[in-house]
Design goal:
Blueprint: H1 2-13, H2 24-45, H3 50-69, H4 82-101, H5 110-133, H6 141-154, H7 161-184, E1 192-193, E2 212-213, H8 218-241, E3 262-264, H9 269-277, E4 284-290, E5 299-304, E6 306-307, E7 312-313, E8 317-319, E9 342-351, E10 363-364, E11 367-371, E12 376-378, E13 385-387, E14 396-404, H10 408-412, H11 419-425, H12 434-443, H13 450-464, E15 468-469, H14 479-489, E16 491-492, H15 494-507, E17 512-518, E18 522-525, E19 528-532, E20 536-544, E21 548-551, H16 594-598, H17 602-610, H18 630-660, H19 672-676, H20 683-700, H21 711-721, H22 726-744, H23 753-769, H24 773-781, H25 784-821
Parallel strand pairs: 15-16
Antiparallel strand pairs: 1-2, 3-8, 4-9, 4-19, 5-10, 5-17, 6-7, 9-14, 11-14, 12-13, 17-20, 18-19, 20-21
Helix pairs in contact: 1-2, 1-5, 1-6, 1-7, 2-3, 2-5, 3-5, 4-5, 5-6, 8-25, 13-15, 20-22, 20-23, 21-22, 22-23
Keywords: Membrane, Transmembrane, Transmembrane helix
Region (Disordered): 318-337, 560-625
Pfam families: TgpA_N, Transglut_core
């Protein structure tokens, strides 16, 4: 079992392979498992208690880590010293920081390798304790499963089938070894001699050298294999056949609805962004040529339009065949683009073959026509181009896009927002902290137009706010992380900057979303550009009627920030030219355009409207955008209460049904018999019902019930345990005598059903009076008799399922036999 526990742990650790660049982590974990197994063997040889067995494993793991990673600071190379233990702590801290800094797969630095060995060793300690020492092999699967949860949560593609299969086989081997040892504990296996090919003569004895075999269990083994194969087939095929669980429909043969629509599911864009930004090699992602001498601008992959209070994501995409991108088809027109000057740009893109799982195309906004091979589709609202089954890796495509160049005056005098844009792109969840609402108002105080508010926000992030670009900052996971970024740490990378500015713009009433993709990259020769993994970027897009979705750049650029990020000209503050006039690059954050005095701009109106705060009318729609609602919690609490009341309800139903079966139906003719309903049609059945009810009450209150006792012996033993008064003693005696007569005498039971029922209530009260409060509440809420009945019912149902499965497995052989007979 010790060997099998170690092998199961090593097989389960194979699932960690996506997290590391090199395989050295496995050998570090292999040594940790060997050390833990040795410590467990020593503890069991010394026959120490189970808790000390756990301590032996932890000490062995510490000795191993000390020997491998801090031997130069230890006593006699392997004995831990204060200096070596301190070094291990520093190494663990360095490894934790490196793991948070780099995206998977991470480089195998010493600190990361030590953390991997320590984690695998801790799992080995738990598996050894549960499976080998405590003989709880099934529970040992929980720490093994925990190792799979790490790559499943970090890596977008999860764990490969080979690694998962190896871990599953290791766990199954551990279960088989435990079962074999437990069966072997009963002694030597009973064997039988092999059946000879020829029938022996009467009275002949088998020869002394005739081989012996264990009992023939081939039929049982075959049934077990069939059941296992059937269970695996159901587990694999059933999810593939359920339309709601597969984005491509039943067995991937089509959409799940009658109209052929499919829900698009892709990896988390923000996780992909972190991985690209922290790649050590900074490899080339794509190259492109552009008809515009200035390049094609930012290449957008995603448009994240939903904020749930913690993270930005995009709304579910319902894809249909009418959204397919064909060679001559024009894409839908970009929303809101009607005033700003536009010119068409042709971009030819080639994505490197090494790029994997790029199911969204990097295209300049706003694409009007895309020429690419494969099944690619467009989302009409956001103009994201994506595929349900193809990847852009190794492909070349051509995209024509409409490049808008709005002026600051056009943005400042933008018209009112459409109602659908306002309802969808200004929604803010109710759980956004009040500090952020106040901060947005303070930063943009005195700005009268939406453009001046946006410029002030951008300038606050890049110049005035004291922010620092830092790739080692952890990705935001909760709303508190956003508060910490804005008010305290002020350290982060483009994800935090874009998410924070888009949220603050929504608070101010400006429609906004977060775009993700790549910056223009580097120009290697005239007209040809190269984009690296470090050019991955996120930026906010704000909506201005007449100009559509307009990009802003709150992330610091240059050597101290995102190296290839460029702030658009209209987002720069106006600079005086020395003659008392200002250029048209952008209005000053403090200035007001002529349109501001004539009419209230959409941004300003929305700003005043949102000054009501999270509780105002402006956020009435937030309930549908991921805000915290008490309804799920109340529903969950109600469900828990209902589940807790199930055993008590079952006990009451069983008691009612037990007595209701004995009372005859009232007669249609009036009379004393119809009114009293006192006599039972089956006196013996009433006695048995009273006896079973008293037995259930005794078990519910924690009294031992011996099945071998006669009714008289059981009553005598209960009378010794209970403090019965005269009425209780007579009730117990009547119940026992009625059961005795019903069992052993053919004579009529003298006690009526109603009297026996009243006696059962009297004895039940005596049970309750003889135990403590805890036992009384357990008898009411979780009666053991009901739990035993439930377990028996589940066992019966499981036996029936196995019987049906065996019959289904035998059906092909029966059919073959029937055809042969014919």
């Amino acid at each position: 079992m010790t060997v099998m526990a170690g092998m199961a742990t090593l097989a389960g650790s194979l699932g960690l392979y996506p997290l590391f660049e090199k395989a050295g982590w496995f050998w570090a974990g292999f040594g940790a498992v060997l050390a833990v197994a040795g410590g467990g063997l020593l503890a069991r040889r010394l026959r120490v208690p189970a808790l000390l067995d756990l301590l032996f494993g932890l000490v062995a793991l510490l000795l191993y880590l000390n020997l491998v990673y801090a031997s130069d600071r230890a006593w006699l190379v392997f004995i831990p010293s204060p200096d070596s233990v301190h070094h291990l702590g520093e190494l663990a801290g360095d490894g934790w920081q490196a793991a948070n800094r780099y995206a998977a797969p991470v480089p195998l630095l010493p600190g990361i390798a030590m953390l991997a060995a320590a984690g695998i060793g801790l799992v080995a300690v738990l598996v050894d304790l549960l499976a080998v020492r405590m003989r709880r092999t099934a529970l040992a699967g929980l720490p093994l499963l925990a190792m799979y949860s790490v790559p499943a949560a970090v890596r977008e593609d999860g764990v490969g089938w080979f690694a998962f299969g190896a871990g599953a086989l290791g766990f199954l081997a551990l279960l088989m070894s435990d079962a074999r040892e437990q069966v072997g504990g009963w002694g030597r296996t009973v064997t039988t001699r092999r059946r000879p090919r020829e029938v022996p003569m009467a009275g002949a004895r088998p020869g002394p050298g005739e081989p012996v075999d264990p009992p023939d269990a081939s039929a049982l083994a075959a049934s077990g294999r069939r059941i296992a194969a059937g269970a695996v087939a159901v587990a694999v095929l059933l999810p593939a056949a359920v339309p709601g669980l597969q984005p491509r429909g039943v067995f991937g043969l089509g959409g799940g609805s009658g109209q052929g629509t499919q829900t698009v599911t892709t990896p988390d864009p923000l996780v992909s962004l972190k991985r690209e930004l922290t790649r050590l090699d900074d490899s080339v992602v794509l190259s492109y040529t552009s008809s515009d001498p200035e390049g094609s601008g930012y290449l957008r992959l995603y448009a994240l339009d939903r904020f749930d209070g913690d993270r930005w994501t995009y709304s579910p995409l319902k894809s249909s065949s009418k959204d397919r991108v064909t060679g001559d088809r024009k894409l839908p027109a970009p929303p809101g683009l009607s005033v700003a000057p536009v010119h068409e740009v042709t971009t030819k893109v080639h994505v490197r073959r090494e790029v994997r799982n790029m199911t969204f195309l990097p295209v300049p906004y706003a694409p009007s026509k895309v020429s690419i091979k494969g099944d690619w589709r467009v989302h009409p609202d956001s103009l994201m181009v994506y595929s349900l089954r193809d990847s852009a890796g190794g492909r070349s495509f051509t995209v024509k896009s409409l490049r808008a160049k709005p002026t600051a005056g056009q943005l400042a005098s933008a018209g009112a927002y459409p109602a659908d844009i306002v309802s969808h792109y200004t929604a803010v969840p109710k759980n956004v902290p009040q500090q952020i609402w106040k901060l947005a108002s303070d930063v943009t105080s005195g700005s009268a137009t939406a453009l001046s508010q946006a410029v002030r926000l951008q300038q606050w992030f890049t110049v005035n706010g004291g922010f620092t670009y830092d790739l080692s900052a952890p990705a935001p996971q909760h709303g508190s992380d956003l508060v910490d970024f804005l008010l305290h740490s002020k350290r982060g990378y483009c994800e935090q900057y874009a998410a924070a500015m888009a949220l603050m713009a929504r608070i101010l009433g400006i429609p906004s979303r977060v775009a993700m993709g790549y910056t223009p990259g580097s120009e290697v020769k005239p007209g040809e550009w190269v984009v690296h993994s470090r050019d991955a970027h996120a930026w906010p897009e704000l909506y201005f009627e007449g100009s559509g979705w307009v990009r802003f750049e709150p992330t610091p650029a240059g050597a101290a920030g995102q190296g290839t990020a460029v702030a658009p000209g209209y987002s720069q503050p106006a600079v005086s030219n020395g003659g008392g006039q200002e250029n048209e690059a952008a209005p000053s954050p403090d200035s007001t355009s002529p349109a501001d005095g004539a009419t209230e701009s959409p941004g300003a109106g929305a700003h005043h409207r949102n000054d009501e705060g999270p509780g105002g009318d402006a956020t009435a729609q937030d309930a549908d955008q991921g805000g915290v609602s008490p309804v799920p919690w109340l529903a969950g609490a109600l469900l828990v209460l209902l589940l807790m009341g199930v055993p008590m309800a079952l006990r009451m139903v069983a008691r009612r049904r037990r007595w209701a079966a004995l009372i005859p139906r009232p007669s249609s003719s009036p009379g004393p018999a119809a009114r009293t309903r006192a006599q039972a049609s089956d006196p013996a059945g009433a006695a048995h019902a009273a006896w079973r009810e008293m037995r259930a009450d005794a078990l519910d209150h924690g009294f031992d019930w011996r099945a071998s006792d006669s009714p008289r012996a059981a009553a005598r033993r209960l009378g010794e345990l209970l403090e019965l008064d005269a009425a209780g003693a007579r009730a117990l005696t009547r119940i026992a005598r009625a059961e005795e007569l019903a069992r052993y005498s053919r004579g009529r039971v003298p006690e009526p059903a109603e009297r026996l029922r009243a006696d059962v209530r009297t004895v039940r009260e005596s049970f309750a009076a003889s135990v403590g409060r805890r036992a009384r509440w357990r008898a009411r809420l979780l009666p053991p008799s009901t739990m035993a009945q439930t377990r028996a019912a589940l066992r019966t149902a499981a036996d029936r399922v196995l019987d049906v499965t065996a019959r289904v497995n035998e059906l092909p052989s029966r059919l073959r036999l029937r055809f042969r007979r014919r």
